[in-house]
Amino acid sequence: MKNHLIPRVLEVRAPTAPALPLVFDSPHSGTDYPDDFDHLAPVSAVRKAEDTFVDELFQAAPAQGAALLRALFPRSYIDPNRAAGDLDVSMIEGEWTGPLAPSPKSVLGLGLLWSRYPPGLPLYGRKLSVAEVLGRIENYHRPYHDTLRRALDHAHARFGVVWHIDCHSMPALSNEMAAEGPGISRPDFTLGDRDGTTCAAEFTAAVRAALTAQGYRVSVNDPYKGAELVRAWSAPRDGRHSLQIEINRRLYMNEKTFEKTQGFEKLQANLTRLIETLAIFARDRVR
Ligand SMILES: [Zn+2]
């Protein structure tokens, strides 16, 4: 695994310490807004879709022997954490002949391409062309998944096992488009293993124990179970373990101004300790 950059799309940072079968990815922290996005919604509303600074929170991963992949494009442009066919075709002009398997997220307007943003207003003042949608899939979604899969395959080929942490953040309070309605306070962290199907229980337990020991309130599979990135490439029985981690934004940023708060450094230091703990977890199991 080498350092790798696709400008405006993604960056991989290879381990700078002896490599371990650990891969972190941050799919929603990108802030490089493509010139052809052409959305109707105000920038301040569109930016709320970002998991701002999550890549920075995990920047110590390579120094602990882990690979770190981060998206540079914003999630509101195309969401790597959805399947390529998770589309609402009513937002596309012309006949769509590409992949199509809409989930309830697409019905909500929060599929591969968002059609709405909270509290449910239209993201675009136009339809998207077929070429535009195919271009976003080919140039952003596909390279992201291909790069993640290669990083996981690389580690798995060498060690026979790989642990993948898919890193996100969540608003302090649920919004109007959340299944449970607006205004619900979120825990400090939510871990998602899709009800125990994307990794061994001991991995979820290890992350939960490490965060709980730091004094955080941690929930599992509630309100987030994990989505496409932990589903797509995991196979726990084959030694491929993926876990989603959601960090409460109130721990590190002002959600209105998109600025780091005083809590950022402490959280980053605590996550560096989490990465160290997971490096030991991995080392103990590949010896
Ligand atoms: Zn996210």
General description of the model:
The protein has 287 residues and is of the alpha/beta class. It is built from seven helices and 14 strands. The strands form four sheets. An eight-stranded mixed β-sheet has the order 1-2-4-3-9-12-10-11, with helices on both faces. A two-stranded parallel sheet has the order 5-8. The protein has a two-stranded antiparallel ribbon with strand order 6-7. β6 and β7 (121-122) form a beta hairpin. α5 runs antiparallel to α7. The chain is globular, with a radius of gyration of 18 Å. The two termini are 20 Å apart. 40% of the residues are buried. Bound molecules: zinc ion. Zinc ion binds next to loops.
Throw out a few tags for this protein.
287 residues, alpha/beta, Aminopeptidase, 8-stranded mixed sheet, 7 helices, globular, binds zinc ion
Please write the string of helix (H) and strand (E) elements: EEEHHEEHEEEHEEHEHEEEH
The share of residues in helices is 25-40%
- From the alpha carbons, calculate the radius of gyration and give it in angstroms: 18 Å
Bound molecules: zinc ion
CATH topology: Aminopeptidase
- Percentage of residues in strands: 15-25%
Strand order of the largest sheet: 1-2-4-3-9-12-10-11
Mean pLDDT: 97
Q: Give the low-confidence spans.
A: none
Class from secondary-structure proportions: alpha/beta
- In CATH, the architecture is 3-Layer(aba) Sandwich
Terminal-residue CA separation: 20 Å
Number of domains: 1
Main β sheet profile? 8 strands, mixed
Number of helices: 7
**Overall 3D form:** globular
> Quick one: CATH class?
Alpha Beta
CATH superfamily (homologous) name: Zn-dependent exopeptidases
Number of strands: 14
